């Protein structure tokens, strides 16, 4: 483990165009459940599985039940950035990290100080009326009851998160692809790389080194230049950022 941390330190020291691609495992150390871990949302007891509840069809047909689950499991607003979020923000401030591409919707990267963040699956912190487009924050959604309605026009408010059956935002995808294509180093962390099309974006990398940090195995384990199978916060927390 120590040798791998030293190798990662050397990579960070020698490169100034790094992009980070992350998933749910980045936020589990902040207390936000991973969809597919043993203690994650897929192992909770609900009348429907999470992938059904978090679908566009379910949102339309069973909006109140969607929001019961959404408030309970998706709006973890008291979560704080962990060592991984903080180190990535520090790397960006030092000019080493050019972008964060994340599958998470919790906003913890921005809360830690990261500025260039491509949120592939949207954010719980942005919510819009489906009728007039009025904006509502996550606190409003958390405090609302039943189906939240717009105070201006009475329309149903929908989170700006990508549900199953919905497509990713094209501008976000294009920005993420550009960042990955121009990176010298791609650090992939906290993701099982099974959620597509998001996971497919790593294929656009043409740079020097791929670093993979994930507790479990992934489809990229054999192709990574450096593989560290440990919690990402524990790994990145040991890295020193030097300009």
TrEMBL record:
Q: Which UniProt keywords apply?
A: Cytoplasm, Metal-binding, NAD, Transferase, Zinc
**Binding residues for NAD(+), per the UniProt record?**
24, 28, 35-36, 103, 105-106, 121, 191-192, 214, 216, 232
NCBIfam families, from UniProt?
A: PRK00481.1-1, PRK00481.1-3
Which terms does the record give in the GO molecular function aspect? histone deacetylase activity, NAD-dependent; NAD+ binding; zinc ion binding
Q: Which family does it belong to?
A: Belongs to the sirtuin family. Class U subfamily.
Q: What cofactor does its activity depend on? A: Zn(2+)
| Reaction catalysis annotation | N(6)-acetyl-L-lysyl-[protein] + NAD(+) + H2O = 2''-O-acetyl-ADP-D-ribose + nicotinamide + L-lysyl-[protein]
| Keyword DNA-binding among record annotations | no
Q: Where in the cell is it found?
A: Cytoplasm
Ranges where the Deacetylase sirtuin-type domain occurs: 1-243
Tell me which positions the record assigns to the signal sequence: none
GO cellular component assignments: cytoplasm
The record's comment on cofactor binding reads:
Binds 1 zinc ion per subunit.
Q: Which residues form the active site?
A: 121
Q: What does this protein do?
A: NAD-dependent protein deacetylase which modulates the activities of several enzymes which are inactive in their acetylated form.
The entry marks the following residues as binding nicotinamide, namely 35, 105-106
Its name, as the record gives it, is NAD-dependent protein deacetylase
Cite the EC number. 2.3.1.286
Residues involved in Zn(2+) binding: 129, 132, 150, 153
């Amino acid at each position: 483990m120590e040798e791998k941390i030293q190798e990662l330190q050397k990579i960070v020291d020698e490169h100034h165009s790094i992009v980070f691609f992350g998933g749910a495992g980045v936020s589990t150390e902040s207390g936000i459940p991973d969809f597919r871990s043993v203690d994650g949302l897929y192992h909770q007891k609900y009348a429907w599985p999470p992938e059904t509840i978090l679908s566009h069809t379910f949102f339309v047909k069973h909006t109140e039940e969607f929001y019961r689950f959404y408030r309970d499991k998706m709006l973890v607003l008291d979560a704080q950035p962990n060592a991984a979020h903080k180190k990535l923000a520090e790397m960006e401030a030092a000019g080493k990290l050019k972008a964060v591409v994340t599958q998470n919707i919790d906003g913890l990267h921005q809360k830690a100080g990261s500025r260039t963040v491509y949120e592939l699956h949207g954010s719980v912190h942005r919510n819009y009326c489906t009728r007039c487009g009025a904006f509502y924050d996550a606190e409003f959604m958390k405090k609302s009851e039943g189906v939240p309605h717009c105070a201006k026009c009475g329309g149903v408010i929908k989170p700006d998160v990508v549900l199953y059956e919905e497509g990713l935002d094209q501008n976000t995808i294009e920005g993420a692809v550009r960042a990955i294509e121009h990176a010298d180093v791609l650090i992939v962390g906290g993701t099982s790389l099974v959620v597509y099309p998001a996971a497919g974006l790593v294929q656009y990398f043409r740079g020097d080194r791929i670093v993979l940090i994930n507790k479990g195995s992934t489809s990229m384990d054999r192709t990574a230049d450096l593989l560290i199978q440990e919690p990402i916060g524990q790994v990145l927390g040991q890295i020193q950022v030097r300009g």
